[in-house]
Amino acid sequence: MVQDRIARWASALPDAVTSAFFLSVWIVPAWWGAGAIRTGMLMMLVEFILLHATAMLGSMLLRSDGDRDKRRHRLALVASLGGFYLLFIAAWSYQFRAWWPLLAFGWLLLGKAWQAFQPLPGEARRRRMQSDWAIGAMAYLAGVFLTVFVPVPRLGISGAIVAEAGLPGGGLWVSQPQTVIAFGAFYFAVLAATKARGTLLRHAQQAPG
Q1: Which among 33, 55, 149, 187 has the fewest CB atoms less than 10 Å away?
Q2: Is 91 inside any structural domain?
C-alpha cells in the first residue's frame, strides 16, 4: 500500500538524515567545522542512553493502550520520560560548555518516538517497537565491534581537524575520532534501511523496562 510505504519512509527519514550528517563529517568535516566531531561523539553517547530510554518508553506506551485518549497520553509519557533522560544530557552539556547537546537529544528522541504515534493496533505496535529496539541494540553492538577491531580510514578527519576539535577525555574515540564518526554513519544507516523496508524481527522479545 502506498500509505504504508510513505509511513515507513517517513519513519526512516530522521535516521537517514543523521547517517548522512555523520558521513559528511567523516568525508568533509570542513563543511561543518571541527565542532562537528564533538557533536558526533556526543550523539553516539546520547544514543546509548536513548536505547535504554526506548525500552522504558515502549513498556510505558504499551501499557497505555487501554486509555481513552491514547494519543495525548502517549505524548505525556514521551515528555515525562524525555525530561528524566534530559538530566543526563544537561550534565554533558555542562561538561562540553555548549547547548547543542540538547538539540542532539531532541533530534534523536524524535526518531525514537515516532513509532509510538503510528495508527497501528496494540499488538502490531508491540511487535514493531520490540523489533525496532532489538535492531537498534544489535546495530549498536555491531558498530562498536566493527570500529574497534576493523581499521577505519581517516578520510577527511586530519590531525589538524582533530587538534582543533579539542575532544575531552581519552580513549579510542578521542585518539581516533574517525571511529565514532564511522560508527554513527553505519548505525543510523542500518536503522533507516530497516525502517524503510519495514523489517520486523520474528522472534524479537519485549524490551526490558
Answers
A1: 149
A2: yes
Note the residue count of the chain: 209
| The Cα angle at residue 195 between residues 186 and 202, in degrees rounded to 5 | 105
Q: Tell me which residue range forms the domain holding 88.
A: 1-194
Whether 14 is in a domain gets the answer yes
CA-based end-to-end distance of the chain: 33
Q: pLDDT tens digits for 172-185?
A: 888 899 999 999 99
The pTM of the full predicted model, rounded to 2 decimals, is 0.78
List of residues 6+ apart from 203 with CB closer than 8 A:
none
Examine the pLDDT at 90 and tell me if it is beyond 60: yes
Task: Return left, alpha or beta for 155; rule: phi > 0 is left, psi -120 to 50 is alpha, else beta.
Answer: left
Q: Which three cell numbers, joined as nine digits, stand for 58? A: 515502549
Q: How far is CA 181 from the centre of its chain?
A: 13
Judge whether residue 200 has pLDDT over 90. Answer: no
Angle, CA of 155, 156 and 160, to the nearest 5°: 125
Instruction: Please tell me the total count of domains within the chain.
Output: 1
Residue 200 included in any domain: no
Q: How far apart are CA 2 and CA 102, in angstroms?
A: 35
